[in-house]
Q: What sequence folds into this?
């Protein structure tokens, strides 16, 4: 993680956000407590999952795994106050950055018209050093940043909805380049429950000692220290 003296609070004077991530569970491994905070403030958050996570459990055939993970995501979303969840049918594990992916995401942005777009960490690592990120996350985040600009240009993907130029910022959750954060002290336990809802996935990873609360605290407490709170969620903030 790149060293910073402190983290600045993200803006919260908005009403509608769109979260675009690669897989079921991506938001729950870091941003869900923040989303619970915002839905508790009366804000609207929509989830767009590019894949159904169908290749995510080694011992479960994709035809069975996809619906199972979709169901877990819907329940996890409900826990944090999100009822609008879309699965966009991209191939789990082999998401490719390119024009086709930008079009899919731009169409979602135009459809939902958010002020804030939340996405995956798209940097090469999680820690700014040696802990490698995964290709689906990188490609999703990069394409989302570009799709925000695409969605604002009426001449790009003109058949993918009317232009939407109302996105104020893009927030990449868990980025090693994070300079901003949001206080999740009051919603931390809700975030833990949302991760616990991915039981089949966690069991399928064969991590016998994995504790969702311990994992989330390991990231949230240091971020909170830098924000001046008990717990926090980090974001890299970009302006289109």
A:
């Amino acid at each position: 993680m790149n060293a910073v003296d402190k983290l600045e609070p993200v803006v919260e004077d908005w009403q509608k956000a769109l979260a675009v991530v690669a897989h079921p569970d991506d938001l729950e491994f870091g941003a869900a407590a923040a989303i619970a905070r915002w839905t508790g403030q009366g804000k609207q958050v929509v989830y767009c999952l590019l894949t159904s996570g169908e290749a995510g459990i080694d011992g479960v055939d994709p035809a069975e795994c996809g619906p199972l993970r979709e169901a877990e995501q819907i329940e996890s979303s409900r826990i944090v106050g999100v009822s609008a969840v879309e699965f966009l049918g991209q191939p789990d594990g082999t998401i490719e950055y390119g024009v086709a992916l930008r079009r899919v995401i731009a169409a979602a942005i135009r459809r939902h018209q958010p002020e804030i777009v939340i996405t995956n960490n798209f940097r090469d690592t999680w820690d700014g050093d040696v802990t490698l990120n995964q290709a689906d996350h990188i490609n999703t985040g990069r394409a989302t940043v570009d799709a925000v600009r695409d969605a604002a240009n009426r001449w790009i993907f003109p058949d993918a909805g009317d232009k939407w130029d109302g996105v104020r910022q893009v927030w990449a959750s868990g980025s090693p380049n994070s300079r901003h954060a949001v206080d999740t002290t009051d919603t931390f336990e809700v975030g833990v429950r949302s991760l616990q809802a991915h039981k089949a996935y966690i069991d399928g990873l064969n991590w016998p000692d994995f504790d969702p609360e311990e994992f989330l605290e390991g990231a949230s407490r240091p971020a909170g220290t830098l924000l001046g709170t008990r717990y926090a969620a980090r974001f890299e903030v970009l302006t289109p």
